[in-house]
Amino acid sequence: MILTQALPAPVNVPVRAITIDPAALLDTKAAARLLSFSEIYLKVLRCNGTGPKFIRFGRAIRYRHIDIMVWLAEHAIETRRCAATANKHSAAANDCLPKTNKPASCANG
How remote is the C-alpha of 85 from its chain's centroid? Predict the structure, then answer.
């Protein structure tokens, strides 16, 4: 296919700097959106004790932006090839998986 029309010139659009208050409180919906998770998955992480730190105000759950960023940094994994994952039934394959302790019930809402 041959283009018969020239493409328009790129437009320079000014970029605004976004200021984020690290102590800003986010509700579950906003925190889930920031993490690209569903609200239910974020609740599961909270119940398992494996999610970001949260603050409870009565029934309201809030997350500090800085706590979410710290949690993400703590869970960053450097890409590496784990030879043990080639055999799913190998005991060594479990070395490539994160270790979690899941409580029997959730008291964190």
Answer: 24
